[in-house]
Design brief:
Layout (H helix, E strand, L loop, with lengths): L9 E6 L3 H11 L4 E7 L11 E3 L5 H11 L3 E4 L5 H17 L5 E3 L21 H9 L5 E6 L2 E2 L20 E2 L4 E5 L8 E2 L1 H14 L4 E5 L5 H6 L4 E5 L1
Helix pairs in contact: 1-5, 2-3, 3-4
């Protein structure tokens, strides 16, 4: 009987691993098909030192060097940064992928809103994600996917039950004060998604991606609530 040839692992590079990135790392790292490396501006005590590659400024040259040395095939960004820096950093990531030998699949940091119907929302996206999407649309040589889900269901959990850190005044539920924020009038439907469902979308892209350009939305906001996000927010007790 012929000995079955062992399939070579893919190396997945994660840039800017924070709360949601920790979920992605743990799921992919537990999968025998993948090696996972982390691109970070600083050391990450939660992860094996051998998996962490320091890139102080996410410069194109630094990211390119890491992609080449690790032979990464996919770059996933969960970078959260000021709007003014988002386009520059993600342009660097994209250019590094374009130059690299093996990394020809890219998932930039999106994860919120409804880009098909309301591409400029949430507010900061008009200054960050929107212009970078235009850059992506004009690029050639890298497969890319935009993943969006709206609210994580983790926002409705006590902090101790989730990696997602609560941000006072931003997330709808404030457990410390036992209050929630109603977006819009309170009558519009609001969708949420489990982080595990978002990871499933990441897997779908890694395993089945054969597209050049695609946009996957795990969530569609109702048009009325999206239009009223900045007009009406009511604090209520529960």
């Amino acid at each position: 009987m012929e000995k079955q040839e062992k399939q070579e692992k893919q190396t997945i590079a994660l840039a800017g691993v924070g709360d949601f990135g920790r979920y992605i790392y743990e799921v992919l790292d537990a999968d025998d098909r993948y090696n996972v490396v982390i691109l970070s501006r600083q050391s990450k005590p939660l992860y094996p030192p051998s998996a962490v590659h320091i890139t102080p400024s996410y410069s194109e040259e630094s990211v390119y060097s890491i992609l080449q040395s690790t032979r990464a095939t996919t770059l996933i960004s969960t970078i959260q940064c000021p709007d003014s820096a988002f386009v520059t950093i993600h342009q660097n990531l994209l250019n590094a992928c374009l130059r690299s030998t093996h990394c020809k699949r890219f998932i930039p940091s999106e994860y919120g809103g409804d880009i098909e119907r309301f591409p400029h929302l949430p507010g900061g996206y008009a200054r960050s994600r929107l212009p970078f999407r235009d850059i992506l649309a004009q690029s050639h040589g890298v497969e890319w996917t935009l993943l969006n889900l709206g609210w994580f269901m983790d926002y409705f959990l006590p902090q101790a039950m989730s990696y997602i850190h609560h941000v006072p005044g931003e997330f709808p539920v404030q457990w410390e004060s036992w209050r929630y924020t109603v977006r819009g009038t309170g009558e519009e439907p609001q969708n949420t998604a489990l982080w595990v469902d978002m990871i499933a979308r990441v897997y779908e892209d890694l395993v089945h991606c054969a597209h050049q350009v695609n946009s996957l939305n795990a969530n569609h906001w109702d048009s009325e609530i999206t239009q009223q996000l900045s007009e009406s927010e009511t604090d209520s007790s529960f």
